[in-house]
Amino acid sequence: SSLPPEDSPDEADTSLTRDLAQELETREFTSDLYAHLQKRPDYETSALYKSLRSRVDVPDPIYSDLEKVKDRDMAVPTVGQTPTEIIDLVLIELREDRSSSDNPAAGVETLMRFSGPGSSIHMGGKVTPPMLLDYFRESKYKVLLQWVSIAYPKKLELSLDKTKALQQTKLKTPSGDWVPVTFQFTKHDITGGPIWLIDQVLVKSSVEDDD
To answer: Under a CB-based contact definition with an 8 Å cutoff, are residues 111 and 74 in contact?
Structure first.
């Protein structure tokens, strides 16, 4: 199969120093998600909406709950995992067809477990896996569920203190388009060592033909 087109070196979102642009994209995702949730009957109260919105700025919690789920048959953040390994794991889980299973949102649950405390989709917040799955299916984020091939056009970018990371990927849709998807990570210290958690997954609206 043909490779995705190369990015130009001066593309706007190629550096971790582009904080403002990324923040705007993060707000776009969060706003879209909240707008989607507000249409649901269980999100009609303003108090609950404010509680959900506050998830974006919550402080880091203690990660003792990670120990509780390690014995279960599920993928969880683990000391030593690299951002790229996490991306591969999460994307494979998201793509798996569970439409006839007892838990069709299992892949989304994996993404939420690997999302950090500052993320609007962190596990344990007001957004549930079925809600997020529903949002993904109805938005540009559906490529996370339907991709047929993945490419890493650039190396992992690390901040100077090596606590922030950014990985650009491209996901190929069933129709042959390549969609840019960016993963942002933060390193968190827990008992046993540091782990990487996802701050945000940003899907661009534009697609690139596979020519």
So the answer is: no
The H-or-E segment that residue 30 falls in is: helix 19-38
What's the predicted TM-score (pTM) here? 0.68
Beta pairing partners, 186: 164, 197
Q: Can you give the pLDDT at residue 69?
A: 37
Please, is 8 exposed, middle or buried when counting C-beta atoms within 10 Å of its C-beta (0-12, 13-18, 19+)?
A: exposed
pLDDT value for 29 = 65
Q: 197 versus 125: which is more confidently predicted? A: 197
Phi and psi angles of residue 185, each rounded to the nearest 5 degrees, phi first:
-125, 155
Which CA distances in Å does 40 have to 36, 37, 148?
7, 5, 31
Q: How far are the Cα atoms of 41, 173, 201 from residue 26, in angstroms, in the given order?
A: 25, 23, 8
